[in-house]
Amino acid sequence: MIREMVLGAVMAALVFTAVQGYDITPFIVLGGAAFLLYYMTEGKGRRFELLGGSQDMDVVSNITFADVGGQEVAKRELLEALDFIRYKDKVKEMGIRPLKGILLMGPPGTGKTLMAKAAASYTDSVFLATSGSQFVEMYAGVGAQRIRSLFTKARSLAEKLQKTAAVIFIDEIEVLGGKRGKHSSHLEYDQTLNQLLVEMDGMNTGDKVSILVVGATNRSDLLDSALLRPGRFDRVVRVDLPDREGRLQILKIHMRSKPVAADVDLEELARDTFGFSGAHLESLANEAAILAMRRNKDDIGKEELQESIDKVMMGEKLQRRPSEEELKRIAYHEVGHALIGEYVQPGSVVAVSISSRGQALGYTRQAPVDDRYLYTREEILGQIAICLGGAVAEELAVGSRSTGAMGDFERAIELAKQMVFGGLSHLGIVSKEDLPPRELHEAVDRILKETEKSVVNCLSQERQVLESVAQLLIEEERIDGTDFRRMLQESRKSA
Predict the structure, then answer these.
(1) Is the pLDDT assigned to residue 81 strictly greater than 50?
(2) Which is nearest to 334 in space by CA: 273, 402, 380, 275?
(3) Residue 413 near residue 444 (C-beta atoms within 8 A)
(4) What share of the chain is helix, strand, coil (3-state, %, to 5)?
(5) DSSP helix/strand/coil, 264
(6) Which of 353, 340, 357, 387 is nearest to 475 (CA)?
(7) How far is CA 216 from CA 67, 166, 169, in A?
(8) In the chain, N or C: fewer CB atoms in 10 Å?
(9) Separation between Cα atoms, residue 403 and residue 398, nearest integer Å
(10) Distance from C-alpha of 55 to C-alpha of 52, rounded to nearest angstrom
């Protein structure tokens, strides 16, 4: 109201001055400049909005830890920290200092935001979500003001809803809390981070509203050390990609509201989705439902789920069709991968396809029989062999190689380097910094050439199988793992 009255008075004065014959152009220019400055600083800062909605919206989470599949270790650590908020009297009795901040660290899509929402629900707290990029501005003081506004908003919302606690979730906190002095416009960044530190330091146990700051990042190495010291982010909770049991739990959560065919085995699906994040699995379930609806089916079957895995991993199936000569080469290439894959890890091939998806003209999808996180020398050599299998199959069947193996070679080189730096090559234990590039190149070349010889021998012995499976793949376009292994057995028996 006051601002409107002042603005009206200024306009009346300008009109009166103009009527008296005075030039009001300088006043208009100065007024416009003042308004622009206000908008870029104060005005813009006050219009800060949270991701969960505008600053006029009350944000309360209805997500519980039952909605978070897998991540049992992370949930246990988080729940222990949240009990400091939930059981304040017991905490005070034991003389425990409540935690002010929890950092969730892990790859994208693993459920960090979901866990933060569940934390708010568990503690009966107000939930406010934002991202680090929301605080980064080129105008001095805006970021710091937004930090103050965020904490003020958390307290006022909690009091309004008669809550005793609030959870502030900051995604991509490395943007806000990066190491000071590393940015070209470091002054504004530093001011913003300093304000966050001040706000966290100012949180006391005697406050009417307890605030817990939950940060999420996949680059903890970029965070300023001051942010990670005790009294700020006291706990670092690792939120990794789910294991097989975790993937099964996540799939059950996302499939419970969807009509799933009786013959669908979610345990098998969990095995086939090794390396998938929670976000990938949610997308898989959604894409399968869309595909079933597109086909006018009443439920989601195995076929829809397997195709959806391919789509999530590789992208939408494209309409482009290579020439007959290219198609033949692609078929031999993919069957070469699959044959070596079955030789190295029996039962690991899930599907072989020559359908174009994304940048790939064809693909062979494998899933380990058991989730693996450590690899021996023999296992890495097996992975290198799988990478080389496509190019070797092309050369045996067609007489030459193509550029389609470029990505395979890059992967093989990286695996060979892992062997060298992991002390698994003929060089023994070496230092990455002290190893000359020439010696590294020679070691990698030796590994690749020796592995290639074994791949050539293997595929030469399986030449008949290579031919028959490749011909069927050209006709069918896609062969699942079960049919592929059945064909191998039949071809070997007839050979």
Answers:
(1) yes
(2) 402
(3) yes
(4) 60, 10, 30
(5) coil
(6) 353
(7) 19, 17, 8
(8) N
(9) 14
(10) 9
Q: Centre a 10 Å sphere on the Cβ of residue 225 and count the other Cβ atoms it contains.
A: 8
* Residue 2 identity (one-letter amino acid): I
Measured between its terminal Cα atoms, the distance across the chain in Å is 92
Of 41, 9, 146, nearest in space to 1 by CA: 9
Q: Quote the pLDDT of residue 53.
A: 38
**Token pair 């929670």: residue:** 278
pLDDT tens-digit readout, 40-55: 444 444 434 444 333 4
Q: Which residue has the tokens 């234990």?
A: 429
Domain at 244-314: CATH code: 1.10.8.60
What does the alpha-carbon distance between residue 362 and residue 384 come to, in Å, rounded to a whole number?
Answer: 19
Give the residue from 392, 406, 426, 391 showing the smallest Cα distance to 360: 406
The residues assigned a catalytic role are: 334
Beta strands in 264-355 (DSSP E): 349-353
Q: Please state which of the ranges 76-80, 133-137, 238-242 shows the lowest mean pLDDT.
A: 133-137
Class of domain 65-238: alpha beta
Radius of gyration of the chain (CA): 30
Q: Which residues, including other chains, have CB under 8 Å from residue 344's CB and lie 6 or more apart?
A: 382, 383, 385, 386
Main-chain dihedrals φ then ψ at residue 222, nearest 5 degrees:
-90, -10
Nearest to 196 by CA among 222, 217, 226: 226
What's the rounded mean pLDDT across residues 386-404?
Answer: 91
**Interval 173-177 mean pLDDT:** 79
Locate the DSSP E strands across 186-343.
210-217, 233-238
The widest CA-to-CA distance across the chain, in whole angstroms, is 108
Span 323-366, pLDDT tens digits: 888 889 999 999 999 999 999 988 888 888 888 776 778 888 88
Identify the DSSP state of 133.
G
Structure tokens at 129: 């979500």
CA distances from 18 to 7, 30, 172, 185, 426 (A): 17, 16, 53, 43, 90
User: Mean pLDDT of all residues in the chain?
Assistant: 81
Say what the alpha-carbon torsion angle 44, 50, 55, 61 is, to the nearest 10 degrees.
Answer: 180
User: How far apart, in whole angstroms, are the C-alpha atoms of residue 407 and residue 361?
Assistant: 12
- The set of residues, in sequence order, having a beta carbon less than 8 Å from that of 71 and lying 6+ positions away, is 110, 111, 115, 239, 240, 242, 246
How many Cβ atoms from other residues are within 10 Å of residue 208's Cβ?
8
Alpha carbons 131 and 150: distance in angstroms, whole number:
11
Mapped onto helix, strand or coil, the DSSP state of residue 107 is coil
